Amino acid sequence: MSIIRNPNLYHGKNKKDNFFEGWYYKLVTKDRKYTLAIIPGISLSSDSHSFIQVLRGEDVLYDYFRFYKNDFFSSNSYLKINISNNSFSLDGIFLDLYNSKLKIKGSLLFSNLVKWSDSIINPGSMGFYNYLKFMECYSQVCALDGDIKGTLSINDNIIDFNDGKVYIEKNWGRSFPVEWLWIQSNTFKDSRATITCSLGEIPFPLKNFRGFLIGVTVDNMFFPFTTMNRSKLDLKVENNDILLTVIHKNLRLSLKTITDTNSFILCYGPKNGQMVPFVKETLTAKVQMELVDTKNNTLIYSGEGSNTGIEFGGNLM
Questions:
Q1: Which GO-annotated molecular functions does the record name (predicted)?
Q2: Total tally of structural domains belonging to the chain
Q3: Is the dihedral of CA 135, 54, 183, 88 positive or negative?
Q4: Domain range spanning residue 235?
Q5: Which tens digit of pLDDT belongs to each residue from 113-144?
Q6: How many other CB atoms are found less than 10 A from the CB of residue 313?
């Protein structure tokens, strides 16, 4: 029950096969010139192992560090993951990674984390769906936003992340959905807003449906748009970019992505617990966001987020 009420925790203690779990840390420097994604995780399958994925957004480079399954350790009481000499938590990360192409070492500390508002009945960002045991893929937003202190040495270059921004989420289950979309930015020009948006085709006993989790903050106010709260979503694809509108009661959220097809990185993702290369992600897109109160026709927010993470897969694009 503790892992249901605290979705940040590792869910694979009693799993032996057909299971994956991964935590996603997106890191952006204060000057917005360097974007890094670090993904520690574990795959339980015929090829069981733990891993750390590293995406370098501006360089459009990708590395997959593979470790033994037994190199993976997780705490039972709070988010703490160790893989070999590397550690990950809500308080920060320590990295000591090297291969023939990449050497990365250093520690970063996180503070002022903004959490997704939840309750015992609706824990985490997925809410009541956490209690269902047959879902193909589960998702949790661990931190919508946060501040960074520290530096990383990347191929002997010191990258200064002081006063930068961190975003943290995780996924676990058997496989990514047959189609999905993810958009995230907490680096808007005016520093007033954040957005995280994920949607996917959800297998269900009677009929599949498109589920979505969208969380927006504006001036420290949180606005959720989700399947659970009966928001209505419209999605269009134009020239490999997304036009999305979602309505919840008197609130209307509009998103438009601006991407460069050459900035997408091919990454590994889970299929029946195995990690295979089929995920496309960019860390350097832009997203235009508008939030309107339709009851009194008031503009709550309009702005553009940089260093935007966008990921998609399956039949969506």
A1: tocopherol cyclase activity
A2: 1
A3: positive
A4: 3-314
A5: 999 987 776 777 877 667 777 678 889 999 99
A6: 20
